[in-house]
């Protein structure tokens, strides 16, 4: 029986999609064996439609006690992400919904309805303590589906009304739709936005992050957020040894010139099904680099494709990982970046909904 993460030979290229196949999720009781009979060659340019399921949310916030995360609560309006970033560490979460972390993750999405009501209920609990909520802790809250559903916007409206701080991580230009709202939140020190950058190579971006904004578009987002007075930083993530690590200095320079004031980075993470998905992507798009990239990854992960240990899962360990960290620190100093911090966001003015009447009238 094949492993649930074993890619078929001759993985397909689907227009606008990052994954090249659909591995069985790790909870499935049985797994099919991948066989190459040549059918994929005729399907290589096939496009896949996006489907959206509805979920009536029973709760809004996800809590964590991880010692290496700068937040203890997060909120994700959508499950799955149409950006289709092949490396996304959130892909394995789709298995909990009996869906594949591969193509399903980017084509079979779940919209979480009722989040404003559930979050309002959370705020009204007697023991609730206000601390920044991280939006996009798992998937991008400004992915294409947000243009129609506006779940993120409605959440931001509640957060502003309640004077509750939030941090946002995105690689989408759609965040500019909410510029006036975010600017008002910034006036009350309630928001900080991080725009993630992976590469300045538009060609690489098209296969690595097929439906995310272009590198230049993301730099424009940084510039417009900064001009509007919204605190903005950059997240250089993921740094992929042997593929994107040579761009660290140029990425930080470009982000600084655009107006980013804080910067941090993360090493590529390959949990569960993400490792075989990423390796299949490498063999499809960069076969001449595949062996080198995975060799460097294992050097940074104690000989494994991934190591989930607290303290090293985001930065790796070993000589090559240390070199990346040193280069990032040096370039950050050169371009006067501050360290990533949630300090300065306003938690003192929080007012729960019951103190303002019924927000849903």
Automatic annotation (TrEMBL):
GO molecular function, a single term: metal ion binding
SMART domains for the chain: Elp3 (SM00729)
Domain of life: Bacteria
Chain spans, region Disordered: 1-33
Keyword Lyase part of the UniProt annotation: yes
Keyword vocabulary terms for this entry: Iron, Iron-sulfur, Lyase, Metal-binding
Coiled-coil zones: none
SUPFAM superfamilies to which the protein is assigned, alphabetical: Radical SAM enzymes (SSF102114)
InterPro entries membership: Elp3/MiaA/NifB-like_rSAM, MJ0683-like, rSAM, rSAM_sf
Pfam families found in the cross-reference section: Radical_SAM
Domain Radical SAM core: 67-304
UniProt-recorded name of the protein: DNA repair photolyase
Organism: Vreelandella songnenensis
């Amino acid at each position: 029986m094949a492993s649930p993460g074993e890619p078929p030979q001759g993985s397909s290229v689907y227009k606008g999609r990052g994954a090249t196949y659909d591995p069985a999720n790790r909870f499935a009781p049985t797994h099919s064996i991948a066989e190459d009979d040549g059918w994929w060659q005729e399907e290589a340019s096939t496009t896949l439609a996006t489907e959206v399921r509805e979920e009536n949310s029973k709760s809004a916030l996800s809590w964590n006690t991880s010692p290496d995360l700068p937040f203890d609560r997060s909120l994700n309006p959508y499950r799955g992400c149409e950006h289709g970033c092949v490396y996304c560490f959130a892909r394995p979460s789709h298995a909990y919904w009996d869906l594949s972390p591969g193509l399903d993750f980017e084509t079979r999405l779940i919209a979480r309805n009722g989040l404003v009501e559930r979050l309002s209920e959370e705020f009204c609990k007697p023991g609730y303590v206000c601390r920044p909520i991280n939006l996009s802790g798992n998937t991008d809250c400004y992915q294409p589906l947000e243009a129609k559903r506006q779940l993120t916007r409605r959440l931001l409206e509640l957060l502003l009304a309640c004077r509750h701080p939030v941090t946002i991580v995105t690689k989408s230009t759609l965040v500019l739709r909410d510029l006036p709202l975010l600017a008002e939140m910034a006036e009350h020190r309630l928001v900080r936005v991080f725009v993630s950058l992976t590469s300045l190579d538009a060609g690489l971006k098209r296969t690595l992050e097929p439906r995310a904004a272009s590198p230049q578009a993301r730099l424009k987002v940084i510039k417009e957020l900064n001009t509007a007075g919204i605190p903005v930083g950059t997240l250089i993530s993921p740094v992929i040894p042997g593929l994107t690590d040579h761009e660290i200095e140029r990425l930080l320079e470009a982000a600084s010139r655009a107006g980013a004031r804080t910067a941090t980075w993360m090493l590529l993470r390959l949990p569960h099904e993400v490792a075989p998905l990423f390796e299949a992507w490498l063999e499809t798009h960069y076969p001449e680099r595949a062996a080198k990239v995975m060799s460097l990854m294992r050097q940074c992960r104690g000989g494994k494709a991934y190591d989930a240990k607290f303290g090293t899962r985001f930065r790796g360990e070993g000589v090559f990982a240390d070199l990346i960290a040193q280069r990032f620190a040096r370039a950050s100093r050169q371009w006067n970046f501050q360290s990533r911090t949630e300090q300065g966001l306003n938690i003192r003015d929080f007012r729960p909904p019951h103190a303002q009447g019924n927000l849903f009238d």
